[in-house]
Amino acid sequence: MERREFVMKCGMGCLGVLASSLLLPGCAGTRYVSGNIQGSFLSINEDDFLNEGDYLKHVVVQNDALQYPIVVFRLGSDNYQALLMKCTHQGTELQVFGDRLQCPAHGSEFTISGNVQNGPADSALRSFPVIKEFKTLKIDLS
Ligand code: FES
């Protein structure tokens, strides 16, 4: 292989890797935020979704008192969906990839509504009501 051909192939390969990393939603990164627990409510701020003038589709909320994190999807300015990131198959912590949650243990997938998309899990994720009070999002853990 000539030098020029080698450089062209390497350049095209690098462009392919760059393009695929931009297109894969799982590579976009997940924002983790700390929630405050008061009574039976876990609270975060609506601004936790802000990212360079736009809103993230989801954030993952953590608190030392929680055994599993909770993902909160922003479906609209007053419409949020909160799901416990615990696989209903055998309890492995889930990962968020774009508009679904995946289990790294045996491959179950869940929709952002918490419904099973692919097994072996056969029941929906635990979900929590989200109440918006001004800029505070209160996740009802009761
Ligand atoms: S623990 Fe999640 S699929 Fe088995």
Brief account:
This protein has 142 residues and is mainly beta.
Structure description:
- The chain folds into two domains: 28 residues; 110 residues, Rieske [2Fe-2S] iron-sulphur domain (Rieske Iron-sulfur Protein), CATH 2.102.10.
- It contains one helix and 15 strands.
- The protein is globular and about 55 Å long.
- About 13% of the residues have low confidence.
- It starts with a helix and ends with a strand.
- The strands form four sheets. It has a five-stranded mixed β-sheet, with no helix packed on it.
- The chain has 142 residues and is mainly β.
- Bound molecules: FE2/S2 (inorganic) cluster.
Main features:
Rieske Iron-sulfur Protein; single chain; 5-stranded mixed sheet; mainly beta; 142 residues; binds FE2/S2 (inorganic) cluster
Task: Compile the SSE list and pairings.
Layout: H1 3-23, E1 32-34, E2 36-38, E3 41-45, E4 50-51, E5 54-55, E6 58-62, E7 70-76, E8 79-84, E9 95-97, E10 100-102, E11 109-111, E12 116-118, E13 127-128, E14 130-133, E15 136-140
Parallel strand pairs: 1-6
Antiparallel strand pairs: 2-3, 3-15, 4-5, 6-7, 7-8, 8-13, 9-10, 10-11, 11-12, 14-15
The chain binds FE2/S2 (inorganic) cluster.
FE2/S2 (inorganic) cluster binds at residues 87, 89-90, 92, 103, 105-108, 120-121.
